[in-house]
Amino acid sequence: MNAPAPPAENLRAALAGLLDGLPPRQASQAVERLIASYRGATPTDAPILRDRADVAAYAAYRMPATFEAVRAALEAFADAVPAWVPGAHTDLGGGTGAAAWAVNAVWGGKRPVTVLDWAEPALALGREIAAASPELRDVRWQRSRIGAALTLDSTDLVTVSYVLNELTAADRTALVDAAAAAAQAVVIVEPGTPDGYARLIEARDRLITAGFRIAAPCPHSAACPIAPGTDWCHFSARVSRSSLHRQVKGGSLAYEDEKFAYVAAARFPVEPAANRVVRRPQIRKGQVLLDLCESEPSLRRATVTKRHGDLYKAARDADWGDAWPPS
Ligand SMILES: C[S@@+](CC[C@H](N)C(=O)[O-])C[C@H]1O[C@@H](n2cnc3c(N)ncnc32)[C@H](O)[C@@H]1O
């Protein structure tokens, strides 16, 4: 018997079929409409994903990237909590279910999952896509609005991916507080922009005040050492481009890099990385330059040379976002 396809491949195949039957021009127009809605000030008073064409465009165009970003954040979190496997999972503003797929890719197996969103067409399409995964067929797709009235059943893991941007400041606060009250662990992912980072830092501070410890990316739960406005902490996940991407964006690159910012926090003990590589390492002749965020809260550039032996070999393999030194 063949082994079941891993979640990432399963998802790719399910998404590839989504736009079948839709004329290519119509598909690119739906994507262009969507990009326009996310440009500038994102509306917070009514759903952006209004109908099947909007959500099919979202799923085909953005879901592979949000899936990879959430998966990368969850992998870093899993490294910091090696003995922990989430039971129940709740995904807030889950849309078409990218985070449910990502959780399943990191910790396989069936678990109770609730995906909550206010856009019914997104939930309906999420359910359709999830039919491709035996482990996601029983996901509960719940239509609710994130806001002051939001209450959540207790759960192990709450994920919030690419949602804070669509909420008012008051609703962001309500969401983080509701997540902190309900969950043992909270993972939040945002676009890797200065604004995305600023929203994350706000959420990070709230989680710490609520008694959480930061598991990743930060090597500590103290204040972020980046002086506000001078830089922003973010990472990069590689995403294979679909034919729709090539159609909309032109060019023939087989992949693109999704920039994202994240925070993963838990109420239980965590083992954060000693240091984290916070920029793409620079490989020079005989040396590697690593920009590190360190457990003694500070940012430092380390120069690892051939004289460091095995550590130099490890530095040549180190990637942006990795723990340093590798365990
Ligand atoms: C950019 S999409 C992200 C979807 C999914 N989390 C992902 O990573 O692919 C933002 C989602 O947040 C949902 N959303 C925005 N504001 C909301 C609110 N006030 N209540 C519930 N859902 C909301 C939208 O409907 C949409 O599905």
UniProtKB/TrEMBL annotation:
GO biological process entries: methylation; translation
Domain of life of the source: Bacteria
Pfam families xrefs: Rsm22 (PF09243)
UniProt xrefs under InterPro entries: Mt_RNA_Methyltransferase, Ribosomal_Rsm22-like, SAM-dependent_MTases_sf
Protein name according to UniProt: Ribosomal protein RSM22 (Predicted rRNA methylase)
Listed GO MF terms: iron-sulfur cluster binding; metal ion binding; methyltransferase activity; structural constituent of ribosome
Gene Ontology annotations for the cellular component aspect, listed alphabetically: small ribosomal subunit
Keyword annotations: Iron, Iron-sulfur, Metal-binding, Methyltransferase, Ribonucleoprotein, Ribosomal protein, Transferase, Transit peptide
